């Protein structure tokens, strides 16, 4: 029986042959296994790849002792971190490439992205980190990747509006995440359940909106999931809808931006102090200087809140809102 190897498989095999260090070799072996056509004609090859994977892994573990390098550890930057998650070829890397300065690789075959690529996404006067990831797939999902996803502030679930069955695509991704104890849900009141499942805030982004049948598919997904998740369409290629990703991510972080000013001076709106929603005057003070906790007497506030007049005196426990300006008095 002929093996009928695909270009993707051949590409991974080529990269495997070129790889120097064992970690890279292991990665491409795993991708070869993920992309090799699964039928009788490749049984022998599959067995061979699996054997080489376990040999390489064993050699790596022996070499590095117990501490194995985790390629999915991504240093946090900015006011929050989102994982960009989805099936292969949906356009995750294209989206991250358009929203940030990160150099992501976009190509029309599956498993283009093999390791996390973080980028900083500007929203108004703050920066949010979004991390491009390899696909979540039946053939091959690294537990370490879901481990990383479990620790982010939220998930941007990208799906393909040109898919024959986008609901099945989304359910496939959700099912695999759940297998590794990451559950997407609308609000994460409880971060971890007793059995260790991480509840992650998420929103759904349908990509390739400019294509035929995209609108119809978007409606199907909105009808199915719209009650629990925010769902909208974008086109990375034509660059529309992308601002909605910025705003939705910011709102999901549940933070406020507060500004400080000195008496008689104007505030600096380029330098917000970012606090959790519900923060008070004293939380704001404490985030500027630890001594404020003791010495702060009162503050004057400039707020969009219509119940407050400009420069009104407020107490230490006054709850703040996004955009408030404070003048602290000690
Ligand atoms: N029509 C259309 N194609 C797009 C759009 N965005 C991305 N693509 C194409 O979709 C293919 C996959 O894009 P990628 O960004 O590499 O997809 P990915 O989800 O990162 O893929 P993996 O890394 O393999 O998981 C490429 O051929 C892109 O050019 C879009 O908005 N419209
Ligand atoms: Mg990619």
Q: Can you describe what's shown?
A:
This protein has ten helices and twelve strands. The protein is an alpha/beta fold. The mean pLDDT is about 90. The protein folds into three domains: about 60 residues, no CATH class; about 170 residues, 3-Layer(aba) Sandwich (Rossmann fold), CATH 3.40.50.300; about 80 residues, Ubiquitin-like (UB roll), CATH 3.10.20.30. Helix 7 links the parallel strand 6 and strand 7. Guanosine-5'-triphosphate binds next to helix 4. Guanosine-5'-triphosphate (GTP) binds next to helix 4.
SSE topology sketch:
Blueprint: H1 7-18, H2 22-35, H3 43-64, E1 81-86, H4 92-99, E2 117-123, E3 126-132, H5 143-150, E4 154-160, H6 166-179, E5 182-185, E6 198-207, H7 214-225, E7 230-233, H8 242-253, E8 255-260, E9 273-276, H9 281-288, H10 292-295, E10 298-302, E11 312-314, E12 325-329
Parallel strand pairs: 1-3, 1-4, 4-6, 5-6, 6-7, 8-12
Antiparallel strand pairs: 2-3, 8-9, 10-11, 10-12
Bound molecules: guanosine-5'-triphosphate and magnesium ion.
Strand tally is 12
Strand content: 15-25%
Structure ligands: guanosine-5'-triphosphate, magnesium ion
CATH homologous superfamily of the largest domain? P-loop containing nucleotide triphosphate hydrolases
Mean pLDDT: 91
What is the C-level CATH assignment of the largest domain?
A: Alpha Beta
The radius of gyration over CA amounts to: 24 Å
What kind of oligomer do you see? Answer: single chain
Number of helices: 10
State the CATH architecture of the largest domain: 3-Layer(aba) Sandwich
- Give the SSE string: HHHEHEEHEHEEHEHEEHHEEE
Report the structural category: alpha/beta
Overall, the morphology is elongated
What is the helical fraction, as a range of percent? 25-40%
Which stretches are poorly predicted, pLDDT < 50 over at least 5 residues?
none
Termini distance? Answer: 83 Å
The CATH topology assignment of the largest domain is Rossmann fold
Domains counted in the coordinates: how many? Answer: 3
